[in-house]
């Protein structure tokens, strides 16, 4: 047997072994259907519009939010196959965020689908996850009573649409980066009589950039 032919057989052998190893790794990855992980997340809450009518200076517009808040959370997922997954995520944004007037905490819950492609070491996906955001305080959503006036707590509809990039250090571990638009629908509030003025916040929908970095396990 000539050396060239021997080298050709050896090269073919390595190619076949590499292909089998890749297929085995992908099979092992596909066998790990369930995921659990945690993440740090940040969302920029876009401005909301409110109209104030004063008996002294007339009518003018003001805004609430327009701040960035940071939180943390947990995520659970199930991989239907290497292309489709269903998942649910909960995030908590605590009080006392950066230079913020309204200091109430917020919670977010979303659940939906992740669609894309997963390889041995990485995956790229699009996500669409409807859900709910809870606000302890919403600017100018004011309730007045015998004890005074305060911002009321509310649940709002939300939709998380964006992209996901994953890196797999091993077949059972995940490093994940999310970025997208969290669409929040706020109810109207008012008109409310407040300190000689009337405050009205119309129903509105805002687009809020949210990014997360997390780590998880597949089993």
How would you describe this structure to a colleague?
The structure is a single chain. By secondary structure, this protein is mainly beta. It has two domains: 1-31; 33-218, Porin (Beta Barrel). It has one helix and 14 strands, in the order H-E-E-E-E-E-E-E-E-E-E-E-E-E-E. Strands 1-4-5-6-7-10-11-14 form an eight-stranded antiparallel barrel. It has a four-stranded antiparallel sheet with strand order 3-2-13-12, with no helix packed on it. The longest helix has 29 residues, at 3-31. It is elongated and about 70 Å long.
Give the CA-based shape: elongated
Helix content: 10-25%
Count of DSSP strands: 14
Q: Spans with pLDDT under 50 lasting ≥5 residues?
A: 12-29
Could you name the CATH class of the largest domain? Answer: Mainly Beta
Q: Give the integer mean of the pLDDT values.
A: 83
Structural class estimated from helices and strands: mainly beta
- Strands ordered across the widest β-sheet: 1-4-5-6-7-10-11-14
Order of helices and strands: HEEEEEEEEEEEEEE
Domain tally: 2
So, CATH architecture of the largest domain? Beta Barrel
CATH topology of the largest domain: Porin
Largest pleated sheet: 8 strands, antiparallel, barrel
- End-to-end Cα distance, whole Å, is 48 Å
**Beta-strand share of residues:** over 45%
Q: What Rg, in angstroms, do the CA atoms define?
A: 25 Å
The total count of helices amounts to 1
Entry summary:
The chain has one helix spanning 3-31; strands at 34-45, 48-54, 58-64, 67-79, 84-93, 106-118, 122-135, 142-145, 148-151, 154-167, 173-186, 189-194, 197-201, 204-218.
